[in-house]
């Protein structure tokens, strides 16, 4: 029999694992397995077959046992983000609630355009034992179940109903996860009987394959039109998003900006595209931005948005830019490149910047404009320096951020998400090196912080084992999801976790007050169903999971504790109370559209509604 016709008899689960084992990617000239391993919690829906298939390869494809399926998904997302979407992890969960727990994580990966493969148990294809344990019965549609919910939060979805099906579905899922424009999570539902069914698979299906991320060249006509618009600009600006890093276009962005003298502002996802000291880095833009970026953002006449999906926190709900400003969208995704009537350049950021630079040869922005942007950044730096200073002030997020910023290594990775910390980190963190900041604000998901830190640390240990992953979390997110402190201790993936306790959901309380409402049900002290509030002993809780932990009274003590945590070889948790009302970053915010009450008996609510609506005149209309 010819080699091309030879087959090997494997179960579906064994074939999936063997296929993943032989998929590689070339990164900086080195071939690396695309799938870095997996996160798994076994149950009856995946342990007999998929567990059997994974056991023999546990040394080559490590399986990390998480404590919660949702947190496993967060860890997988953070792993992919660290590797700039060039590597991914799979998550496996049993049929029923284990799989359902992954829904939030899949939505997070979808919103952030991150690859993650979910291999989840499903009900029996034969239906002979129906209804089975954990099955949701839909009386009029026996094919419908929990796994169908993932169709809304995945880029690729399939249910394997025959062993041969994976010959088509697995490559399709992989190609989706590696596609720059369509990148996102992929889901394969694996019925419990089908997982163990055997099939004679072509040996060629398991041949080693080396993948490369596609670079789509931009259309010359789109480049020419954008270059003409930029040439006419008196006040040009660049918005640098997370796609700059995914494209590997940081050097091209920096060179393009320097050659043409164009100020650069960053989105939350693009927060570490430039170091803080670069003289064309004018700061973060938008609702959680800086005065410097927002001032020039509103005055800019031509705006080149590179690798950003222009989320409302970037655009200030489309009030951050002048209504008559020209937008140019350089993005590998057509959907993002054409937002709000932008002139599109659909293509890879690296190739697009190179092509646009060539077409723009000889153009330099007016020096007065660039100097003005630099002056605004200098003023913002002075504000931040004062904002993070500590002494005779209430403890604040900003102070903690400043202490860590001063003491960390340039290549340490910072992780934050949801609540007040994304805004405070975005505004106050001074980037020390490229690609070192992960502020998850695509889905703004509470609970990502510690789990994402664990996933990021797993990825970091593969590349930069001597650096640290530093997690900023509030008490609310900590209480929502903290069990991966235990995971990090078990797997010896050290984290430094700062728990900044403000007594509840203080940032939403701030929004509640800012819209004229009374404090209600956000701070624990303001919950009418809580007869008597008491403080959680976060230090003792973290220690019970095996971490070193300490409670500090102020920023000075935090600095000493952080030094000890840096020197330690295991996960450290540092707890500090911060004031829920004082110490917030008050500058640098654009308008943000939230739903305010048009009618209320509270005069403060009516007043704030009027104030909010008065700013709407700045809102840019478009599609």
UniProtKB/TrEMBL annotation:
Keywords: Hydrolase, Thiamine pyrophosphate, Transferase. Residues 439-575 form the Thiamine pyrophosphate enzyme TPP-binding domain. CDD domains: TPP_PYR_POX_like. Its EC number is 3.7.1.22. It comes from the Bacteria. Residues 39-133 form the Thiamine pyrophosphate enzyme N-terminal TPP-binding domain. GO terms for molecular function: 3D-(3,5/4)-trihydroxycyclohexane-1,2-dione hydrolase activity. Pfam families: TPP_enzyme_C (PF02775), TPP_enzyme_M (PF00205), TPP_enzyme_N (PF02776). It is an enzyme of class 3 (hydrolase). Residues 223-356 form the Thiamine pyrophosphate enzyme central domain. Belongs to the TPP enzyme family. This is 3D-(3,5/4)-trihydroxycyclohexane-1,2-dione acylhydrolase (Decyclizing). It comes from Mesobacterium hydrothermale. The gene is iolD.
